[in-house]
Write a structure and sequence with these properties.
This protein is an all-beta fold and about 250 residues long. The protein has no helices and 23 strands. The strands form six sheets. It has a five-stranded antiparallel β-sheet, with no helix packed on it. The radius of gyration is 24 Å and the shape is elongated.
């Protein structure tokens, strides 16, 4: 059975060392959950700075809502790693009540570490109605991902047709353990080209980042156009694509 924090009204992040108590069984009555939203439905991409994440649960209950408790949490192997929790603020409109809260995620704290990146985050919601009905459940949420950056530089400019064009770049990844960005090594990144006057990029080759996250390759200049790098991403890291770098071929 899921356990909940007895300090439900506290705002902030706590680890598994906090005292817990059993979750009461739900007595839903006519209380129904119609919608659960975390971060607007988008993955939470966290770099080295703080990020505010909004969560909400919308319910239908004719007597009105007395109070709510919301907890954004992560576990590994059944062990609670992270818990952000507080009492929700509830607003009624058109027969529905939405209870919401916001949490400040800070990778510089001891709570956020690289191991909690990915999709094992859940939102625990507990809602109590004025007539005694109440409901509690865990809901799957969006992923919390480590931010990545990617650069591109193609040259020389201009270049003679048939001569080499060198395309370089660097990929960095947010390291929450060190609270800084570092080179993202060993990653497959696609080099793509879009000819001037067209709108579609085509993949030319795939290059692997070196130990410091650097990319470097050469191609033959054939036409004016734009060069870019694109990375497909992982469950723990979002996809990243650079803007196109124009090379004039003469």
């Amino acid at each position: 059975m899921r356990t909940r924090f007895v300090v439900a009204a506290v705002s902030g992040a706590l680890t598994a060392a906090v005292l817990v108590a059993p979750t009461a069984q739900a007595v839903p009555g006519n209380l129904t959950v119609t919608k659960v939203v975390v971060n607007g439905g988008k993955n939470i991409v966290l770099g080295t700075g703080t990020k505010t994440v909004s969560v909400s649960v919308t319910v239908r209950e004719d007597s009105g809502i007395r109070d709510s408790y919301l907890e954004l949490w992560h576990s590994t192997g059944g062990q609670l790693d992270v818990s952000y929790h507080k009492t929700g603020t509830c607003t009624a409109s058109g027969g529905l009540t939405t209870c919401s809260a916001s949490f400040l995620l800070d990778p510089a704290s001891d709570v956020i570490s690289n191991k909690v990146a990915g999709g094992n985050w859940k939102l625990y919601a507990q809602v109590a109605a004025k007539d005694g009905d109440y409901f509690s459940n865990d809901y799957p949420t969006v992923r919390v991902q480590r931010a990545a950056s990617l650069t591109v530089d193609a040259g020389p400019e201009p270049v003679t047709k048939g001569k080499p064009v060198t395309v370089t770049g660097r990929m960095l990844l947010a390291d929450w353990n060190l609270n800084r960005y570092r080179g993202y090594s060993g990653q497959s990144v696609k080099l793509q080209f879009r000819k001037s006057g067209t709108s579609v990029y085509s993949t030319v080759k795939t290059v692997t980042t070196n130990s410091t996250g650097d990319l470097r390759t050469s191609v033959t200049a054939s036409a004016d156009g734009y060069w870019r790098w694109t990375f497909a991403g992982w469950s723990t890291v979002p996809a990243v694509t650079t803007a196109g770098d124009f090379v004039d071929v003469r």
